[in-house]
Amino acid sequence: MHILIIGCGYVGKRFAEQALERDCQVSALTRSHQRAEELAAMGIQPVIGNVLDVESLQGLPKADLCLYAVGYDRSASDDKRDVYVTGLRNVLTEIKETIPQLIYISSTSVYGESSGAWVNEKTDPQPANESGEICLAAEQVVREFYPIEDESRNGTILRLSGIYGPGRLIGRKEQLQTEKPISGNPNGWLNLIHIDDILQALFRVADSSSESPLYLLSDEQPNRRIEFYSELAKQLGTPPPVMPDKPTNNLGKRCDSSLIRKELDLKLLRPTIQEGIPASIT
Predict the structure, then answer these.
(1) Which residues touch 237 (CB under 8 Å, ≥6 apart)?
(2) Domains of the chain: which residue ranges?
(3) Element (DSSP H or E) covering residue 135
(4) What is the spatial distance between Cα 43 and Cα 30, in angstroms, rounded to a whole number?
(5) What is the CATH number of domain 2-167+192-221+250-269?
(6) Reduced to 3 states, what is the DSSP secondary structure of residue 164?
(7) How far is Cα 135 from Cα 61, in angstroms, rounded to an integer?
(8) Backbone angles phi, psi at 97, to 5 degrees
(9) Across the chain, which distance is largest between two alpha carbons, in Å?
(10) CB 163 within 8 A of CB 11
(11) Residue 121: alpha-carbon gap to chain centroid
């Protein structure tokens, strides 16, 4: 299998590494010549280009699968909507006839729920902020190019809750160690998914004919924010979290990922934070 990765960051790079271990051919788009050298050293075929530069995308190779996992680089000057929506449209225009399968990484920020209610794939997405609106607009672009009714192409949208794993809790670890305040409603719900489970879900989607064009991926047990940071402090051996903000009625949402687990027989490796935190801090 030949896999093209657009967005070879925290998720994309790890997916590429595991794909290479499975003897897949992997190509990846990058804006940086230095990054291209790093990818080549890993065994990945780099393609120099930018999702906002249409001409640079003409070199994208034909492949069996495209993983689109572009995140927003806050250090760049590009507008987030341009990157997520216009950039996606540019890429899909180029690959729509040459790559039959697409997995698009989206976000549960498309849900604007604030009462603590459960959300799933059937929940009507009503974003509560601009970030969620942009993610939903990008999903609509995916459907333009990979329509559900087109049996010759398969486009799966994977809405991820908060990603954690090795290297993703460094800031929080420092806050706990130095007893710095952690902002946010302590009673609000926190939905997380460990990188190990993202990767196994991606391969499950890639290797099978997904029954659904849309999946929500989160672990099996949402936690109150105070519960998560208390558990993190316990496992790090630091003082308890300092969370000075008063509880509010904005409880957020609780994500139900039972559909993907059932349809793809996906058994999470880190179903709760009790398994996920140790696999993130070691």
Answers:
(1) none
(2) 2-167+192-221+250-269
(3) helix 130-145
(4) 14
(5) 3.40.50.720
(6) strand
(7) 26
(8) -95, -5
(9) 55
(10) yes
(11) 16
> Whole-prediction pTM value?
0.96
Neighbouring residues of 135: CB distance < 8 A, sequence distance ≥ 6: 84, 106, 107, 109, 110, 127
Query: 142: buried, middle or exposed (CB in 10 Å: 19+, 13-18, 0-12)?
Result: buried
Residue 104, both tokens: 């698009």
Cβ atoms within 10 Å, residue 46: 20
In the chain, % of residues over pLDDT 90:
93
**Token reading at 46:** 């780099």
Give CA–CA dist 49/31, Å, rounded: 5
H or E element at residue 3: strand 2-6
Q: Is 129 exposed, middle or buried (0-12, 13-18, 19+ CB in 10 A)?
A: exposed
Within 68-157, residue ranges assigned H as helices are 80-81, 87-95, 130-145
**87-105 pLDDT tens trace:** 999 999 999 999 999 999 9
Residue 211 has pLDDT above 80, yes or no: no
Burial (CB count <10 Å: 0-12, 13-18, 19+), residue 11: buried
Residue 262 near residue 215 (C-beta atoms within 8 A): no
